[in-house]
Amino acid sequence: MPVLEVRPSKIEFFDNRSTKYTCSQVREQTGADIVFNASLFKMDSTLAPLCDIRIKGVTLSDDEFGYWGYGWNANDFRPVMVNSNSMSNYYNFVTCVALCKDGATVGLNYNSDMGGTRGRTAFGFRSDGTMVIYCFADSTSGASTIEGMQTKMLETYKCQDAINLDGGGSCQLSSISYGNVTSSRTVSNFICVWVKPPDVTAPVINFLASTQNGQGLKPGEKFTFQASLIEDSYIKSAKAIFTSENGDTLECTDYTYDYVLSNLLFTTREITQDDKIQ
Questions:
Q1: pLDDT (tens digit, 9 = 90+) per residue, 93-143?
Q2: Residue 131 pairs with which residues in a beta bridge?
Q3: Helices H / strands E in the chain, number of each
Q4: Nearest alpha carbon to residue 15 among 87, 94, 127
């Protein structure tokens, strides 16, 4: 981690040229759940953004080229991939290197100084609206070429569309629940994401729980379980009813659901008299 898979409720663009905040400061100031670096920019005191960028209705950079990028309006939580020639139709627009569109690769267009294996920040969307955020620093297991990023976002993470953002020493991400990627570099702008609150109704999952002696779930025994929850990958906690080989059941709610990895965590604990044996 961090490769984050979340359902956003709001996405905003943060212009950092005057504030010069760190990634974590932006998260604290905005109250966002996740903040990560965005566009290319001039490495000088101006932090002027490069490529085509529009933040909160103001076009900050508009060169002579056309790029695929993400445009969205103030209340949108699912940006759409459009050409930068139409970015004036959107409240926000960000681009760098488009990786895929409509479930297929697009031609990669980038300067040589963005090549090689290095830290990468990217984001994209699956067909069900899931937002995939990828952020790894230089010299980590997630460092990649842009060609590698195209494969990862399209084939590994199943994005319908995705763009690669500024990378290398600019890679940074701040969150409370999903991990962090830190950098000493001050960057020009950030993307801020608010995550959709989890469903308050915990599902019930039924499966067979094996015990050491096959006699069912008894006080003093220890059991280990794992389950996958695919109906809704945004539940933070869940209730499960465990059934032993002889039909005894145990209702347990004291474990957490890792909704970034989309798996219930392995858990081992001792059954006590307080557990409800039905």
A1: 999 999 999 999 999 999 998 999 999 999 999 999 999 999 999 999 999
A2: 6, 125
A3: 2, 23
A4: 94
What distance in Å separates the CA atoms of residue 179 and residue 23, rounded to the nearest whole number? Answer: 13
Q: Could you read off the pLDDT of 22-70 as tens digits, one per residue?
A: 999 999 999 999 999 999 999 999 999 999 999 999 999 999 889 999 9
DSSP letter at 199 equals P
CA dihedral 37, 42, 46, 48 (to 10 degrees): -70
Cα–chain-centroid distance for residue 38? 14
**CA 2 centroid distance within chain:** 7
**Of 184 and 75, more confident:** 184
Strand spans (E) along 176-237? 189-195, 204-208, 222-225
Residue in the structure block whose two tokens are 């950030």: 190
Nearest 5°: phi and psi at 28?
-65, -40
Domain boundaries, the chain: 3-195, 204-277
- Phi (first) and psi of residue 163, to 5 degrees: -130, 150
Question: Checking phi first, is residue 198 left (phi over 0); if not, alpha (psi -120 to 50) or beta?
Answer: beta
CB burial readout 192-210, b (16+ within 10 A) else e: bbbbeebeeeeeebeeebe
- List the Cα angle 46/49/52 in 5-degree steps: 155
β partners of residue 55:
58
- Omega cis (within 30) before 2: yes
Q: What is the pTM of this model?
A: 0.73
- Take residue 56 and report the two structure tokens written for it: 């909160």
Q: Which residue type sits at 168?
A: G
**Both structure tokens of 200:** 């308050």
